[in-house]
From TrEMBL:
Database matches in Gene3D superfamilies: alpha/beta hydrolase
Record flagged with keyword rRNA-binding: no
Protein name: Fungal lipase-type domain-containing protein
Coiled coil: none
Pfam families tied to this protein: Lipase_3
Species for this entry: Brassica rapa subsp. trilocularis
Record domain Fungal lipase-type: where: 113-186
Keywords, sorted A to Z: Hydrolase
InterPro entries documented for this protein: AB_hydrolase_fold, Fungal_lipase-type
Length: 326
């Protein structure tokens, strides 16, 4: 689902003039805002209106250097942004950020966006054209930023979060771990406690284990709330010494077995991650009883929740060897 719209098109008003790149909240505001810029770029292209999308990156010292175009419907699904290091800041900023939007249920984008969602559902997102193009775009950025991989970040929301995670993991396997921010990632799974224990083991790839993406989830968002249960299950399995069995179980897609479809690698099969859970309660925007579930989901899955002032987040982290709740 899409990001914010209407009066929120002008960008977050409460952001400090100077970005502290060591501050998690500042990093969250900036990366989610760049994704919102991608949403607005596509809306501008489709509606042929000026929604001032540039404010969502220029306000933070970034410039737009490349748009990623979906070859199936000519829509903008991603963008490459470059940071102007002369902008007031503290800490180590990224040199480039590659951002990916999520699903837009509009006439010209819904078909290919839904197709991407189906690929997520069956763990085949890495077989789509967006993923292939995204890998090429990131590799091009890496060639330009030859100093350190820490200078290139990935960010995505919803379907775009799935793409960012798959790109990040693929590059991590090749020894190129990139800082990755995944907002409301599409992780739909059956409860892990119902998975059978399989009598085999699997060693974690140490290169992937060294990559620690940031997952932003809302308990009321059915598209990503399973992340929380997965973390709890990882902790439980690690405590009883069955962490390796859990990795195998998580790799099994019962949806693919049921439908007879060849499965790829699940997005949720991660060795390490930092998870930020939004615990802030939002007011309903409507008194219509029939519409309240939709508004509740829209709030829980929306991108704007991550740049709102006065956040209330729980932070959890896990590694393949030492999952923990902070």
């Amino acid at each position: 689902m899409g990001g914010a719209s209407g009066s929120k098109n002008s960008g977050p008003k409460h952001m400090l003039p100077e970005i502290d790149w060591l501050n998690s909240y500042h990093r969250t505001i900036v990366t989610s805002s760049l994704i919102q810029g991608v949403y607005l770029l596509q809306r501008e292209k489709q509606k042929k209106v000026n929604s001032q999308s540039y404010l969502w990156w220029e306000s933070f010292g970034f410039s737009l250097v490349k748009q990623l175009i979906n070859e199936d419907d000519d829509s903008i699904y991603g963008a490459v942004f470059e940071y102007n290091t002369n902008n007031p800041h503290s800490g180590m900023p990224p040199r480039s950020v590659v951002a990916f939007r999520g699903t837009l249920l509009k006439s010209k984008t819904w078909l290919s966006d839904v197709e991407g969602g189906i690929q997520c559902f069956f763990n085949n997102l890495n077989k789509g054209s967006r993923f292939q193009q995204a890998i090429q775009a990131v590799q091009t950025v890496l060639e330009k930023n030859t100093t350190e991989t820490t200078s290139v970040w990935l960010a995505g929301h919803s379907l775009g979060a799935g793409i960012a995670l798959m790109v990040g993991k693929t590059l991590a396997k090749n020894g190129v771990p990139l800082k990755t921010f995944a907002f409301n990632p599409p992780i739909l799974s059956i409860p892990l406690e119902k998975l059978p224990v399989i009598d085999m083991t699997q060693d974690d790839d140490p290169r992937v284990a060294a990559w620690t993406p940031y997952l932003y989830v809302n308990p009321s968002d059915g598209f990503c709330s399973e992340c929380i249960n997965i973390l709890k299950y990882k902790i439980f399995m690690a405590l009883i010494g069955l962490g390796k069995f859990e990795s195998i179980g998580a790799a099994i897609s019962f949806r693919c077995l049921t439908f007879g479809i060849e499965s790829g690698e699940p997005i949720q099969l991660l060795s390490s991650a930092v998870m930020l859970v939004n615990k802030k309660k939002s007011d309903d925007e409507t008194t219509n009883v029939l519409m309240k579930p939709w508004y509740k989901f829209k709030k829980a899955h929306g991108l704007e929740q991550w740049w709102e002032p006065n956040p209330a987040w729980d932070c959890h982290s896990f590694r393949s060897s030492e999952p923990r709740m902070d």
